[in-house]
Amino acid sequence: MTRKRKKKASKGIANLSDTIIKILRKERNKTFNYKQIAAILNVNDASSRNQIIKKLQLLLSKKEIEEVERGKFKAVVNTEYYKGILDLTAKGSGYVICDDFEDDIYIASNNVNKALNGDEVELYVYKRRKHGKLEGEITTIIKRAKTEYVGVIQLSKNYAFVVVDGNKMYKDIFVPINKTAGAEDGDKVLVSLEDWPEKADSPNGKVLKVLGKPGEHNTEIHAILADYGLPYEFPPEVEEFANNIDTSITEDEIKKRRDMRKVLTFTIDPKDAKDFDDALSFEVLENGNYEIGIHIADVSHYVQEGTILDEEAYERATSVYLVDRVVPMLPEILSNNACSLRPHEEKFTFSAVFELNKKAQVVNEWFGRTVTYSDARFAYEEAQAIIESKTNTIPAEVSLTGESYLADQAVADAVLKMDELAKIMRAKRMSSGAISFDKVEVKFNLDQESNPIGVFFKTSADANKLIEEFMLLANRKVSEFVGKQKPEKTFVYRVHDEPDESKLQALQNVVSKFGYKLNFKDRKSISSSLNGLLSDVSGKKEQNLVDTLAIRTMSKAEYTTHNIGHYGLAFDYYSHFTSPIRRYPDVMAHRLLQQYLDGGKSANEAIYEEKCKHSSSMEYLATKAERDSIKYMQIRFMQDHENEEFVGVISGVTDWGIYVEIIDNKCEGMVRTRDIKDDYYEFDESQFAIIGRESKKMYQLGDEVIVKVKDTDLVKKHLDFNLIGKANA
């Protein structure tokens, strides 16, 4: 053995006791002899093997390991093991979020042990603390959060590496040259993680798909979907199955349903909508009350359980709304045709029909399958024109046809009466403690090549709120109808827990900088003071910041079979029933409601709880993809404005820089602390600010500043600003 080899071997078994303990703890239910340990350490010389034997005897004498049978050892488990989810930092260290501890457990980079961001892991926790935090070591990866990654491939002659997008992957993925799928150097690819050998520095992978050249529009949109494991096309067999479904309106099927084709019915949707999954019907009864039907596309009639179409819809669980396209849950033959409640067409629907009095109180209710006929289709802007003018005149500037026209008087009267009832219902809901989040949505005007040529803000007008109230009514009453049955029946609820007290306190700390105060005395006062805050900031420069922070204080709404009510809406019972074209939980709600209307027994709770978890998880991924697509489009938009100055609000402060949101277009970017040259700035967490060491100049959360674009990186989705100074300086 050369001196060089000896040096390498001795280095390889440095701190040998700790290394052996790690090996035995990692697979603590297995036994190992000295030869197996030597093989794991990749040493085979006599000197190294003797050292392993000696260390095993030393650990045995210390009772850190036990000899199960002659020459076979395993770790003595004298510590409790815990489970949690790993949240990695960009530096490769991380924290495990663990239910057994109030604080997250710090994991040093050398104790991550090949775990990746989001993985479910097993760990043991040291008794010592580091920087005041509990510290642990990951022993086992229970479940990988993901096995497919998006990145840029770097080709060499005999192998390649994929550099993964984002900063949470601390290793490049090694790809053998025969597993590159024909990718060219610099292509953006989707790669699957195949294995990570014990002694390998990087995981091994295989290219699944070449997405295209970085920076190109379709490449980046497909990369966003691929990164979250979201498909952008249907398998051919699913398309074929959907295309072969009989979508005709047959007399036999009509006889099984309540026929509501003669009742005045219409839809109100966004002007660019292609799928209309809800319609409203309106009739004045002889007693002076109003019968209002909420008619929902009967998706479960076409999507039968156990078919490949149902399996695909379940896997997707939701439609994904990106800035330039919709990735639908159902193939177009259903989503835009058979299940879309288009005007002047008969459709099979699932309905919630209510008799309301003049005080908007529900006097009677009926649920069941129907056949309906839509008499008219309105865009929100057209319905809004009726509400504002109190007439049936639709002006050219909001008309779907581009020309002014007179809407049917009966429909206009129905819209006006339903608006009146919706306002009563909304006021009642707000007085019960519901929270009004009318957050401004950022939308882009796109040209034919999907280039952003303008930004506009979508707000909720009376016509939007009319539809919202009646959809809320249907969702609430359906879940109430099932939830109050005895014996208790399994159902899919949409629940929302109470806000976290510490997050509310953090919100108070922020909004106090703007002169606002919250009252946390009880549930009712929290709701009313949050509503007051949201109303007070409306139209102010800090509105988007405060709206965003207020939403973050809320618990995340989710699907479950265990009803705890919906805090944000102030409902004891709530479900999703009104959008089965784009949400799978609504399909499940339809099926369960029909089962119980038919007198069927309660469904298996465990099966539906699993489906609820999957639906919540897919909703979360879709939301992240949607946000990423907005961020990407914002960066594309700002590429054309590189020499302009903008006024923005400081929306976040960290020890590495400040985030600034431009007031005019809501695009958010970062000013890095190191790029502010007039002083050395330090982060002051207590004041949500960075402060100049010499000048004491402060840039604080909520301050208005002037910035200029420094760098736009479409691939990394980074938008960097240079700070010009304070806006009012």
UniProtKB/TrEMBL annotation:
It is an enzyme of class 3 (hydrolase). It is found in: Cytoplasm. Keywords: Cytoplasm, Exonuclease, Hydrolase, Nuclease, RNA-binding. It comes from the Bacteria. Residues 643-724 form the S1 motif domain. GO terms for biological process: mRNA catabolic process. The keyword RNA-binding applies. One of its GO terms (molecular function) is exoribonuclease II activity. It holds the Pfam family CSD2. It catalyses: Exonucleolytic cleavage in the 3'- to 5'-direction to yield nucleoside 5'-phosphates. Belongs to the RNR ribonuclease family. RNase R subfamily. 3'-5' exoribonuclease that releases 5'-nucleoside monophosphates and is involved in maturation of structured RNAs. NCBIfam families: 3_prime_RNase, RNase_R. This is Ribonuclease R. The lineage of its organism: Bacteria, Pseudomonadati, Bacteroidota, Flavobacteriia, Flavobacteriales.
